[in-house]
């Protein structure tokens, strides 16, 4: 199991999150020695590369590993605490329709936690993104309206909402039944051109676009 009883007690200790962290200090030192990442007075970093649909780099920023890891940890802890609050609210609500809507909020938090944890840990081939990229990725994922379908594909998720649905709501609801206006459950048309974001590990200097 990812984390123990977070719905009852809120955010787990940082140590529980740290065990999923993809890079230790030693890992970063080795990557810097091989030239895959760089280091300055603020710490180890890579270059964010934003690519257009034509695969042309259009912007780049330094992305510091430690600062980004700490930001992800804070964001995960916020969502764990929010999930515990929503869970308490569900338990005290006698109206099934409202309980289902609140449970969908729990699922959205679970989905966002899953995305954050995958980036944090590097599971399933997720690259290391910048804070800006992570925010945009979460919004892009939610705009697809597939939170229920996505959670269903995983055997285990940070909040295990799919496993808890029957015990909490009294029965299982299909993704179709859960569709609605809640973020993560309603598909939105993209308002602008979609960009691909990557952070290449090697040859950063050569891949930086000229300003």
List the defining traits of the structure above.
single chain; 211 residues; alpha+beta; four-stranded antiparallel beta sheet; 51% helix; elongated; disordered C terminus
Can you walk me through this structure?
By secondary structure, the chain is α+β, with helices and mostly antiparallel strands. The chain has one domain. Helices cover 51% and strands 11% of the residues. Strands 1, 2, 3 and 4 form a 4-stranded antiparallel beta sheet that branches. The chain is elongated and about 60 Å long. The model is unreliable at 191-211 (pLDDT under 50).
Largest sheet: 4 strands, antiparallel
Number of distinct helices: 10
Kindly, what is the distance between the CA atoms of the first and last residues, rounded to a whole number of angstroms? 47 Å
The total number of structural domains is 1
Short description:
This protein is α+β, with helices and mostly antiparallel strands and 211 residues long. The protein has ten helices and four strands. It has one domain.
Set down the secondary structure blueprint.
Blueprint lengths: L5 H4 L4 H5 L6 H9 L4 E3 L2 E9 L5 E8 H27 L4 H26 L9 H13 L3 H6 L8 H9 L5 H4 L17 E3 L5 H4 L4
Antiparallel strand pairs: 1-2, 2-3, 2-4
Helix pairs in contact: 4-5, 5-8
């Amino acid at each position: 199991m990812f984390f123990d009883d977070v719905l009852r007690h809120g955010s787990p200790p940082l140590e529980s999150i740290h065990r999923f962290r993809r890079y230790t200090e030693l890992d970063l030192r080795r990557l810097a020695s091989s030239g895959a990442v760089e280091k300055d007075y603020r710490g180890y970093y890579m270059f964010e590369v934003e690519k257009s649909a034509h695969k042309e780099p259009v912007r780049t920023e330094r992305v510091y590993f430690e600062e980004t890891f700490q930001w992800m940890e804070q964001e995960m802890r916020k969502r764990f605490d929010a999930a515990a609050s929503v869970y308490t609210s569900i338990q005290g609500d006698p109206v099934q329709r409202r309980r289902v809507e609140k449970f969908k909020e729990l699922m959205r938090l679970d989905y966002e936690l899953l995305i954050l944890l995958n980036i944090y840990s590097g599971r399933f081939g997720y690259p290391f993104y910048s804070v800006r990229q992570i925010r945009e990725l979460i919004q892009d994922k939610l705009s697809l309206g597939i939170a229920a379908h996505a959670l269903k594909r995983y055997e285990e998720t940070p909040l295990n909402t799919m496993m808890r649905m029957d015990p909490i709501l009294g029965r299982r609801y299909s993704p179709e039944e859960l569709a609605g206006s809640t973020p993560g459950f309603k598909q939105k048309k993209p308002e602008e051109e979609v960009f691909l974001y990557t952070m290449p590990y090697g040859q950063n200097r050569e891949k930086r676009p000229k300003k």
